[in-house]
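Dear Dr. H.,

I hope your travels went smoothly. While you were away I took the liberty of generating a structure for the chain from your last submission, since the lab meeting agenda had it listed for discussion. I wanted you to have the full record in hand beforehand rather than looking at slides cold. The sequence, exactly as received, is reproduced here:
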Amino acid sequence: MRKTLSFLAGLFVGAFGGYLAGLLLAPRSGEETRQDLSDRAIVLRERAEETADRVIHEIQIARQGAPEIVAEAADITEAGEEGQPAEAPTPAPDAPEEAGN
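The corresponding predicted structure, in token form, is as follows:
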């Protein structure tokens, strides 16, 4: 996982550096290039804000479901310690079915 994140970070930095070099070396006036960079920075900031809002929303949803998952895991653990067969947890409504079914 760590190698993947490092690779993706390097890929992003390299792509951004190439993009920036292309913009700076393009045959346009300095003012046109600065305006283009400014416009793109605004769009990038808006996209980052939207992504952050989506992530925060997903985290809030996960937090709401966490107590139920913890209680279910505790029930399964207790049943296993008592030597009783544990009931299989019910899958989430959007969980994919197993291939064997």
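Two observations you may find useful: The mean pLDDT is 79. The CA atoms of residues 5 and 11 lie 10 Å apart.

With kind regards,
E. W.
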